Request: fold
Amino acid sequence: MIETDILIIGAGPCGLFIVFEAGLLKLNCHLIDALPEAGGQLTEIYPKKPIYDIPGYPSVLAGELIDNLKEQIAPFKPGFTLGERAETIEKLADGRFKLTTNRGTVHVAPVIAIAGGLGCFEPRKPPIENIASFEDKGVEYIIKDPEIYRDKRLVIAGGGDSALDWTIYLAELAKEVTLVHRRTSFRGALDSVEKVMALNEAGKIKLVTEAQVVGLTGTDKLDEVIIKHKTEGTFTKAVDHFIPLFGLSPKLGPIGEWGLNIDKNAIEVNTLDYSTNIPGIYAIGDINTYPGKLKLILCGFHEGTIMCQAAFKHIYPDKKLSFKYTTVTGIEGL
Reply:
């Protein structure tokens, strides 16, 4: 059995930052994540993608941000249970929560902080009959290491930010990049759309609109994709990789069965302290909802900071909380 002060569900950027803010209050933390390593979506989906809205960083790679957060929280020695999903909770007689994972690991804590991002998520897959047989054999739904696509022939499908951003990034890396989209308009940022159009005009990528990939062929690995165009009919294209980027399908998973107030697959919270309807359980980051909610990492950092102050008062209702600035005391002085 693992005991701690704050049990954090989700080891993404917001979950990791809770450790720092809790550590300043001398509260211990333990993190649970279904993914095999800390970092959440930033590590699992786009570690090499630049992020532009983190204060103090004109640009920082997603993976680099996670590395920095890990370094920042290292002095507080958090515990990790990775590769396991938070499954059930129960309230103990002493007021603490007992949480059990899908692998039977038991955790006990007076406070649970849910920082699960989009919750349990899986990629949205195109309706291609034999696509499962080519997964990890030329078909990838998530780009983890762009280097594997160096000097390769790629077909990317999608019309959102992820498809556009990776098309732009891989245009300088791959031998050949073709972006296939079923419409002529895109859902992504206008700046990204303009860059993709410019790359197409310059001959650095090939843009195929009003079309979709409808079939895959190959023996031991993917060899060709079959593309159906609105006016030009069906044709095949030789490829090394097919990357459909249609976004993620978020699900709360077992958390949705815990008796929390849920609104459209997100947990309702009180913005006073980001508490849920169950005392002692808080939710921050993309997994929560409230009027005016913005799904930004920097907003999650703010929510985690406020939440930790409330968590201290929940754990130690009779103790006076003395807030100190790190610029005055430093980490060692806290």
User: Anything to note?
Assistant: The chain has two domains: 2-121+248-329, 125-244. Helices lie at 13-24, 40-44, 62-73, 161-170, 190-201, 297-315, 326-329.
